[in-house]
Amino acid sequence: MHARTLGLGLALLASVSTGALAKEVDLVIEDVTVIDTQTQTRSEGRDVVIDEGRIVAVVASGAGEFEAAATVDGSGKFLIPGLMDMHVHTSIRPVHENSLKLMTANGVTGVREMGSDCVSPGTVYMCLGEMRESAAKIEAGEMVGPRLLVLSTFKVDSNRPPNASEGQVLYAPFDADDGRATVAGLAERGPDLIKVSQEMHPDAFTGLMAEAEERGVRVGGHIPMMFSIADVAGMGMDTIEHARDLPLDCSTFGEGFRDQIMRKVRGEDIPWPDRSKRPAGVRDTFDEALCAPHIEAMVANDVWYVPTHLTREMDYRAGEESYRDDPRLRYLLDLQVADWTRDLDRTAQASPEQTADLEDFFKLGLTTTGMAHEAGVKIMAGTDANDTMVFPGFSLHDELGFLVDAGLTPMEALQAATSVPAEYLGRSDELGGISEGKVADLVLLRADPLAAIEHTTTIEAVIQGGVLRDRAALDGLLQEVRENVEQMNAHMGQGG
């Protein structure tokens, strides 16, 4: 009897001790299917334990000893890392906060802001210091929005007006010395990335790239029109945006097009090439073999590719009533809708033949993205949010669909918005996956995104830094944006 009593006492003591040692945590997502893009694994029946903004454990459901302040039933649901949009424009004052809320409501927990500065203070564009203030407020939980992971400069080009201001001179270099001075001047402002435009003088670009290389400053954006992808990859360009240059370089038309621009810029008495002929010219002379040196240069030089297929979709769909009558327009200010409508109207003036050419060019963009991915180029999902018909937050899901159309698997498309951006940022240890120690930026879905990529839109909850927003809270954000839009439209309509 004594032994039995002792055994029972020890068991009771162990039970009490286990309960006493249960770790107190902020949140547990219970019995969920975890899709960890970083390890390319899918694990059913897991508890994801979150405390102080980070994941502290991912264990078999019920296996851990945790006392949670809050729990979420994840049974039948799917957990993915928070999505990152690697090409957005949120620094436009009237749409800044609305854009950030729309992104959060759509599961976007981090962005690379590709225009985070102003040429002159007091314009519609926010300056770098103001964007840093927003970034700090978001991190502190004082503003709703995704993490502003990268803040680039305003776009650098060579379109310097007469009597240019100091800011305009800084952002519009015209020769090699100017290009070096631009890097030096912008470096003092401390952006994370210098963004370049396709409208740069070749000498200014060469000088800028040389100075950036010496200073270890990242450069990304558009390729100046007289250079090829292989050219700029060899110069050290960090990221290439938009699916227009790779198709161009995969055609015999492209070489002549770029050469004609270079000769014109160098002073030859020849006309500029006709850009309207580019889509058909690229399609008619496209040759996969011509892609090889450019894709190989991207791989060899560790150039990241952000194709933003959405921007090419608008080129050929601008005249379609179903495309223009998008219900998501209700989340935008009248002035933005009017600006988009003007752009759509201009683009829709293309003839039926030109529209067909533009659609073919769009499809070549998908084809070449698939080729680049297959060869080992690191693809990142980006949307160009706030460009015409590119809706903040919503459109990232559309772009993921285009990446699958390009040949990526659903897992690889998810990686393009999670683990690959984390690698680009040098933050794979804390972002882009679902494992112990990672920042708790997560999206809970009602349907399996590996079965169909469009299931990324079935958002049940978004967790950012451990802060949970359930479906009701996300719908509340969308309603806040609509109410804000109505108020601002009314105010502007009264001449305010």
Automatic annotation (TrEMBL):
<feature type="signal peptide">
    <location>
        <begin position="1"/>
        <end position="22"/>
    </location>
</feature>
<protein>
    <submittedName>
        <fullName>Amidohydrolase family protein</fullName>
    </submittedName>
</protein>
<feature type="domain" description="Amidohydrolase-related">
    <location>
        <begin position="78"/>
        <end position="466"/>
    </location>
</feature>
<dbReference type="Pfam" id="PF01979">
    <property type="entry name" value="Amidohydro_1"/>
</dbReference>
<dbReference type="InterPro" id="IPR032466">
    <property type="entry name" value="Metal_Hydrolase"/>
</dbReference>
<keyword id="KW-0732">Signal</keyword>
<dbReference type="InterPro" id="IPR006680">
    <property type="entry name" value="Amidohydro-rel"/>
</dbReference>
<dbReference type="InterPro" id="IPR011059">
    <property type="entry name" value="Metal-dep_hydrolase_composite"/>
</dbReference>
<dbReference type="InterPro" id="IPR051781">
    <property type="entry name" value="Metallo-dep_Hydrolase"/>
</dbReference>
